[in-house]
Design a protein that fits this description.
Elements (H helix, E strand, L loop, with lengths): L1 E6 L4 H13 L3 E4 L10 H13 L5 E6 L3 H7 L7 E2 L4 H9 L5 E5 L5 H13 L6 H11 L3
Helix pairs in contact: 1-5, 2-3, 4-5
Bound molecules: D-ribose.
């Protein structure tokens, strides 16, 4: 399992914490930054991570900005990327089980670090249910207008 990581200036600290969690679980990381406090535009980081996932260079993506909203909006412009911006465990679990979400976009200003770690764990530990959901996910991926 390989994860592509990205954050804007608001998400740098939380990205680092979540990266530690991934490493501790033996998950390989490709980190596209940002790494400091200088302003970094979230669409740029989302694009780098989304391209890596869409190209199969990473299995999953993790994006962090202030809310996770701009990251998810940006990442979902890329074919084959299914980004979710949850704030609770149920939605996170369902996004994997029913929607096969492959990018997790979290808000560093919306979640405490403990909550964010919990959501990442749920994202990691929940498999896609497939079956009746597979055709629906294929429909998501088939829509390009
Ligand atoms: C940056 O101030 C903020 O707009 C960004 O981190 C994010 O929340 C956008 O969705």
């Amino acid at each position: 399992m390989k994860f592509a990581l990205g954050a804007d200036h608001a998400g740098v600290e939380l990205k680092s914490r979540l990266g530690e969690l991934l490493r501790a679980r033996g998950i390989e990381i490709v980190d596209f930054g940002a790494d400091g406090s200088a302003p970094a535009d979230y669409p740029d980081k989302a694009a780098a991570v989304a391209r890596a996932v869409a190209a199969g260079e990473a299995d999953r993506g993790l994006l962090v900005c202030g809310t996770g909203v701009g990251m998810a909006m940006s990442a979902n412009r890329f074919a084959g990327v299914r980004a979710v911006n949850p704030s609770d465990s149920f939605t996170t679990r369902m996004s994997r089980a029913h929607n096969d979400a492959n990018v997790l976009a979290l808000g560093a200003r919306a979640l405490g670090p403990g909550q964010a770690c919990e959501l990442l764990e749920v994202f990691l530990d929940t498999p896609f249910d497939g079956a009746r959901h597979a055709g629906r996910v294929a429909k998501i991926d088939s829509v390009v207008e």
